[in-house]
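Task 17 of the worksheet. Students: predict the tertiary structure of the chain below and write it out as structure tokens. Keep your answer in the requested format; marks are given for formatting as well as content.
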Amino acid sequence: MYTDGEALAGPRSGPDPSDQKGTDPVNERGPLTATTALRKRLAPCEPDDLAAAARETRRQLWRASGPSGFDDLLPWPTLTPLVTADALCGGTVRAMRRDRDLPLEMLTRAAGRNGERILVPEALQQACRQGLSLVVNAIDADVPAIAAMNAMLERHLRCDVLTNAYASYEQEGAFSAHYDSHDVLILQIHGRKRWWCHGQVDPFPVRTRVFSSPASLPASEWEGVLEPGDVLFVPRGDVHHAAAFEGEASVHLTVTLLPPQGIDLLCWIGRRAQRGELARRSITAGADAAELEEWTSAYRQMLHQTADELDLSEFLADADRARAPVRPLNPGFAQAPKPTTVVQPSLRRRIPIPTGTGDIPLQIGPTTVKLGEPERAVLATLVECDSLSVSGLSEALAGVEVAEAVAALARKSLVFLFDAPSSR
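Model answer:
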């Protein structure tokens, strides 16, 4: 029997960001100090414990001590409308059983002369009763609450985050036993699901591996049932599989964590090296031995100098500035935010927010936006705290027209807005 939080035995390419001066919440607070908002959002999982488990590549389980706190992330009425014929045909939603996609012809029918298809609800529901699972890829693109959670995690862990949803209706799962090439945080939303973990076959895999035959599976290291509100961290390379209970519907989120790897560092070094002439020169195919030796010596010297000057903090800061924000839509809602409206930043990283008077451009990944002083004050406070109500922002920023600044940030898609009852 495992107790809460007990360990279970066993950047990307982009434009070169410009330097921006201003408040730097990363340096002021430290990148791995969790905010109250993030701790509430992930509870019972402690964000700093999660970061430690990821660093140590060890499995960890957190048990909910009371009612699930994840119900608002993906209520059934939010999930069901995402399953459409267009989503199935486009691959956003997959209907799966034992590693195989069910033929679309079994779930949809032709409508009209232009190749359009429509969903056949009776066929889908019958397939679910027979063991079909539904996989909603990148569900954060459709559900703002999940997108806001992902952005919080990115600001804390300084890694790319994306989320898929899995709905199972019988004992069979969508996938056979496998390991992933990335870390996974599993949030159990509805129902129960049994999990088996068999340990790390490869601690640093670059691609997923499926174990189709039970005979090829390593011995099981851990088996347990996730209830609503439970959280399980599975490091990359750890073989795992899951099954719902007969007659019970189960929904869980898999939050993919993609921290920068050594290969990303090398790519960053390569992009920076292109500023110098030597890295841009062609290595002539017809060069003789003496010329090749001369080139070899020059490149060795360049690599030695690069290694001596290497600064991982600079690499991570550049990755932070290059990460594009989420761009939430806030039509109508942003016109007059209420005092109880909950505001969360859409920035995926804690980048410095410029100080000063007047409108100042802020570069966020490939996007540059001009922000006035009140907008920058609100955004900097939100990046620091992760989540505040409009009234909470007003208390923190005396003298600032907070409601107007929040509305302006919402129109520029730099914040999420939530009604208070649906936020944590």
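Marker's comment: The CA atoms of residues 197 and 240 lie 4 Å apart. Residues 10-31 have pLDDT under 50 and may be disordered.
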